[in-house]
Input
Amino acid sequence: MLILTFVPKSLSFVATGVTRVVAGGYVGVKALTRALIHRREVLRLSELDERGLKDIGLVRSDIDGALTVSWLKDPSAALAARSSARAGVASLRREEGVRQAQVKIAVAKPLTPRPVTAGSHSTVACSA
Output
């Protein structure tokens, strides 16, 4: 047998629940508004040419990819993630290039000057 009991709830408990619902709704509306504002800003970025996008560390496909996210999500977060990933890859490439240059310098033989004797004329070729 199932027995249901009803316990009267205090008014403060009901007010707390209503406050939570209203606050949750406010946060949702705030997030949606922010996403729409950022979407408009990303659309403005799409008006830039390739050179302008490169100056800020983006490419056209980053903009297109950010605009494909849901209307409920912030497209600028997708742009930030793509930009930071690209910056990480670029820094790894720079570090690898510096490392390879250091290895080449260490492997290269040091140049020893030829002794110059009195009375002999020699020309020295220099490659730059």
Q: What stands out?
A: The helical segments are 11-45, 50-55, 60-67, 75-107. The chain has four helices and no strands.
